[in-house]
Amino acid sequence: MKIELAPLPYDYTALEPKIGKRTLEIHHDKHHAKYVNVANQMIEGTDMEKDDCATIVMKSHKAGNQGLFNNAAQAWNHDFYWKCMKPGGGGKPTGAIADQINKDFGSYDEFKKQFEVAGNTAFGSGWAWLSWDGSKLVVDKTIGAGNPITDGKKPLLTMDVWEHAYYLDYQNMRATYCTDFLDSLVNWDFVNQNFASAK
Amino acid sequence: MLSLLAAGGAEAFSAFAPSLSAPKSLRLRQESVTMSSNDNPMSRRAAVVVTAGLLGSFLAPKESKAEGAFSLPALPYDYKSLEPYIDEETMKLHHDKHFNAYLTNLNKALEGKPAAKLTDIQKEAIKAGPAIRNNGGGYYNHALFFKEMGPAANSGKPSAALQKAIDASFGSMDKMKEEFNAAAAKRFGSGWAWLGVTPEGKLAITSTPNQDNPLMEGCEGQKMIPVLGLDVWEHAYYLKYQNRRPEYITNWWSVVNWEAVSNNYEKFAAKGIPVEVV
User: What is the least distance, in Å, from the CA of A123 to any CA of chain B?
Assistant: First the structure.
C-alpha cells in the first residue's frame, strides 16, 4: 500500500501563536507531502510496494538506499511529529510517562534540559527524540532523516529542528522554539500511548 | 550603497532596532536566548546602524577581543541591495545573526590556541572536532558567500580567464549552471554547493553537508578550492522562498558578482591557493 499523507490532527491555526498557520500549511502540504510522494514513487514496482512506512524505513536503511531512506523516514518522522503536538499542550506530563521521566532523568526539568540540548545541538537539519530503549528512556538527536527505530529503539516523542519547522515563526531563534515546544505544544497523551505500546 | 572600511582588526557591527518592521506573514520573536553562548551585548543596549557617511568610523562600541580572534566582515553592500532575489530581512538575519554566531563560537573554540590562518583552520577542521569544524566552516563559508554577491546591476560577467575555464570544464556557462543547480537542489538537509578548482587545475562542482567545505581534509565529495559557494541551509532562503529551493537557486545567479568570483579564481584558486576571505 502507498504511504499516506494523513491530514493534520488539528486545524492549521491550532498551534498559534507558537507555530503559525503558514508554517503548518507549508510544512505539511509541501515538505511532508513531497517526502510521501517521492517515497511512493520510489517503492513502486519494488518488493516494498505493499510495506508499511516503518518497514520501508528499516529495509531502505539496511540496504543502504539513502535516497529512499531519506524520503520514507521523513514521511514517518513528520507523521509522528504532528501527533506529538496539540493545541494547549506542553508543560509537565502526568501518567506513566511522568513517573518514568522522574525515574530515568531524576526530574522533568532534567529531561527538559536534555531534550532542549538535543534540539539545539543537532547541527544543521535534524530531530530531537525521547525514546524507550527496552529498559529506560533516552534522549537522542538525529541528523537529516535519522530515526531511532533503526537503532531498535521505540520513539515516544519527537521535535523537528530542520529550519523549515521554525524559521517563519522563530527565524534564527531555535532555542526559543525548543522551549516553546516543550512548554506549550507537547501532546503528552500521545507520548503516554506510545509508552504503553513500547513497554 | 553601504560600504565600510575594515582596517586590520577593526570590526563593524550593526544590530537590529527592537521594533524591526516585518512583512505580515513574519512573526518576529523578542530577542531572547539564542544558541550563541556569547550574546552580543551591543544588541541589547542599543540598535546601532552604521551608515555610508561614516566610512572608517564606528558608532558601535567594540567588545574587547582576544589577540588573534576573528572579526565580523561588514557586508560590502546594503542589506536590501540583493532584492528582489534575496530579501532584506534574510540578509539581516543571515549576516548579523547566523554568520555572527559562527564567528562568536569560532573565537570561543580557538581561545587559548595559537593564532592560525583561517584557511589553515579549514584544512584541519574535520580533525579538530565539531566546534571548529562547524563554526570554522560556517565562518569561512559565509565570509566567502557575502563577498561573492552584490547588487544585480553589478553582476557583470566572468573574466576571460574564468570564462575560458568554465567552457573548458563544462562546455558553457549554461551547462555549468545546470550542473551547479542540480548539486544545490540535490543536497539533502543543510549544506552548500561549490564551484572550484580541483587539484588537477580544472573547474568542477561539488556539494558538502552542513558547514563543511572542500578545503577540509576528509570532506565529502570532490576536493577543490572553492571560488563560488551557494548556501542551501533553509535559513538562506526560507523567508522568501519557503520550500521552493530550486527557485532560490535560479534567482541567486542574478546577485553573483562575477568580478569577485573571477578574482577568487585568478588570484587564488587557479594558483592552487585557498581564497582568503577575511
Answer: 7
Look up the pTM and report it. 0.87
Which of B10, B40, B59 is the C-terminal boundary of a domain?
B59
- The domain made up of A96-198 is a member of CATH 3.40.50.720: no
Per-residue cell: B82? 540583493
Q: In what order do the strands lie in the sheet with B191-197?
A: B203-209, B191-197, B225-231
Query: Is B126 part of the contact surface with chain A (CB cutoff 8 Å)?
Result: no
Which residues in chain A are closer than 8 Å to B209, comparing Cβ atoms?
Answer: 124
Residue B94 region by backbone torsions, left for phi larger than 0, else alpha for psi between -120 and 50, else beta: alpha
Interchain proximity A123–B243, CB inside 8 Å: no
- The residue with cell 533503526 is A150
Chain B residue nearest residue A22, CA to CA: B25
- Chain B CB contacts of A123 under 8 Å are 130, 134, 210-211
Question: Cell numbers of A116, please?
Answer: 532542549
Nearest to A199 by CA among A131, A111, A123, A121: A131
β A126-132/B191-197 pair status? unpaired
Minimal Cα distance from A19: which residue of B? B27
Interface mutation vs chain B, best among A26, A28, A172, A176, most B CBs within 10 Å: A172
Looking at domain A21-83, which of 3.30.559.10, 3.90.1150.10, 3.30.360.10, 1.10.287.990 is its CATH number? 1.10.287.990
Q: Which of A112, A104, A128 is nearest to A195 (CA)?
A: A104
> From CA B278, how far away is CA B139, in angstroms rounded?
10
Q: Which helix (H) or strand (E) holds A130?
A: strand A126-132
Written as tens digits, the pLDDT of chain B (278 aa) is 434 333 333 333 333 333 333 433 445 454 333 343 334 444 444 444 434 444 443 434 444 445 558 999 999 999 999 999 999 999 999 999 999 999 999 999 999 999 999 999 999 999 999 999 999 999 999 999 999 999 999 999 999 999 999 999 999 999 999 999 999 999 999 999 999 999 999 999 999 999 999 999 999 999 999 999 999 999 999 999 999 999 999 999 999 999 999 999 999 999 999 999 99
